[in-house]
Amino acid sequence: MKLLTLNCHSWQEDQQLEKLDVLAQTIVERDYHVIALQEVSQLTDAPAEGDYKKGHFGVELLKRLESLGRTDDRMHWSLCHYGYDVYEEGVALISRLPVTETSSFFITQSEDPTHWKTRAVPRITVDAGGQLIDVYSCHLGWWSDQEEPYTYQVEQLLKRQSADRLSFYMGDFNNHAGLKEEGYELLTVKGLYDTYALAETKDSGVTVFGQIAGWEGNAQPLRIDYIFASAPVRVTSSQVIFNGEHKPVVSDHFGVEVEIDI
């Protein structure tokens, strides 16, 4: 099973359409089964186009995938909040595996999209060769935030976990693996398994270099984008992608791809 997560920083990138093309071409080439995307936006005042609005980043990606011959993908998107005064920003899951169930829920105390700290999580249940697996796309806040505590967000995220099914939590967790007694350690203490740590083959795992939104003043390489599993699994490889070495840069975050024996 091949998984990809990417904070795509949608509609904020220079040469955005070219980068969207690279993303679509890579998805087809690498043949991912499930993809988690964060910062997936649409213009607030754009006209409706089906279930979304014209120019929705995820819809534009699906159109490109279809044009490249990958026609069985389905998307589940959740609105989090309004961003930069003009966007409806959300998180999404795209699957070419059959989807048997979808849901969305808030992990913040705020459920108001006009508040920029409001965060929602979409979940899908996929049928992976007869095994049902839950997948979540996650974009958490910051450890030091007193208004929307990180511990509360983790509790809300994990309280819906099924005891009967394997779950994958994929996304931008906004907490560096190198920091002790903070978010990354909390997630592992709560029973999640970092697929990077389990991987038989891996690289540096670094997904952010330097300053980005929310990490102003940062000068160190960060590993803040993860794919966690709810139980130990065999991970044959974990690689950073879209980092300029393994595919061109398409966002202010690099992506993470893992291959898992299911």
From TrEMBL:
Residues 19-253 form the Endonuclease/exonuclease/phosphatase domain. Keywords: Endonuclease, Hydrolase, Nuclease. GO terms for molecular function: endonuclease activity; hydrolase activity. It holds the Pfam family Exo_endo_phos. This is Endonuclease. It comes from Jeotgalibacillus alimentarius.
